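Researcher: Going back to the complex we discussed earlier. I've cleaned up the inputs and rechecked each line, so this should be the final set. Can you rerun the prediction on the complete assembly and write out the structure?
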Amino acid sequence: LSGPMLSRSAFNEALPQLLARLSGRLSWPMRLATVGAESDTPVMELQTSFLVAGPAADASDSAPVLVQVRLHIGFSSAYACPVLHFCLSQPDGVPLAASDAADFVRVNVESSTGEAAGQLDLASVLSQVPHPQLGCPMYTLHPCRTAELIGRLTSASEADRDGSGEVRDTNAAALAVLSWLTVYGRAVGLQVPPECFL
Amino acid sequence: QTTPDSIQRQVWDGKLPVCFVLPEDPDVPPLYSLVPRVGYFPALLDRLRAHLSRHAGIDEDSPGAQQLWLRSAGRPLRWHLPVGLLYDLERPKPPPLPWEVEIRTRDFPTDELVSFGPNNSLESYFLYCLKEADALKHRARVINEMGEREHRQLWQGLLNDQFDQFSVVNRKLMEGEAKYLPFRIYQQGADGGLSVLQCLAKPHREDSTPLTLSDLLRICLPNFTDPVTLATHGVSLPMETPLAWAYDKLAYPDNFLHLVLQPGRCNSAGDGESSAMQLDSSRILTVI
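Model: Rerun complete. Updated structure for the full complex:
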């Protein structure tokens, strides 16, 4: 790890600023919430709906379908970094079939990064897992490389002025999480407007 | 003579006799299987589908077979958890053996159960668990340095019950100094809800002596005073057991030490007669 690490408390303190930076600039409805039995674990919830092309197999009826995305931004103590959990469902709440969910993520990543279909090994980084506090099945992107990314982002921003190895400045933490979201949000079609960084 | 390795081997070799039944068609004969405690139920899906195809006339590609799920004592089996852990969690006490597990082909509980299949493989989930464990121990350095071939070998070793194939790679994950030890503490409520507790625990106390299981409970459940036992693989552990020792010998192949919280003291004769535990729920993350 090259840069100072994000702590859970720095992340928690940065969430209100994250919300403030995104509100009004991103059209997704969003709010801060708490999860866990003690309601002491803050997360940020965002949701929206996308119109996507109908299943390719059904060539006769390629009417667009509505996919609802519900996104949770939380913190992983194990990786000391933010983590994304999301649900993809039809308007009636029925979860998307796993193949459709994988296609949705793949299309979003490809359209934002331009990577060719065959080179993306989604299976190794996208899994449906029980949400750590809620327990219900949600998709997540394996955070294995996130800590590296955060380290690079924080070391570039001189966020560790007191040499503690941890990001203590709330502003720096919020910007680090925002940068992380810029990268990982793409998987669900979330595009962070550049104005959020101002 | 008992070598240290033999405890890990015994843990690996532990198996549970399971009897899979199809309540929706009582004419279908049950499927009996010796299932590894450290394995996962979804690994048996192909076998179950083949059984249904042969005896229940349910085609393997049909929606019923594809959306198959499992139930025990009226509750969906949370099959992302290892088989042995699920058995040890059953309340009020572990069921008689062979363990009767119901196969269901309708009404998959999408809000409760992770769905495993070609687009969300059990192998990918297993790797996800290994990565998190290594993140806690080594900031994910060891697992990230391993290539896909070694990741694959860990999974194949588990799937095919090949201890040596698994261990030769797993050794790298299990050796060396760990920053935090990967563990989870589970408690099944009488209402079927499952509490899962996970926190950061170092192998040593401030004074460098080994952290014990009772230290762990004090960290995770600081307001808790009732006598409890921590058990794993069906065995109750003395509270003075060093966490690092328990981890080294008793961790599951996913590199987590999965501990079940039970009422009563270790070695007590109580076997489930006590009703719901009196726990300070303010420190427990309740998971439905």
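Model: Worth noting: Chain A has one domain: 8-53+64-188.
Researcher: Good, that matches what I expected from the previous run.
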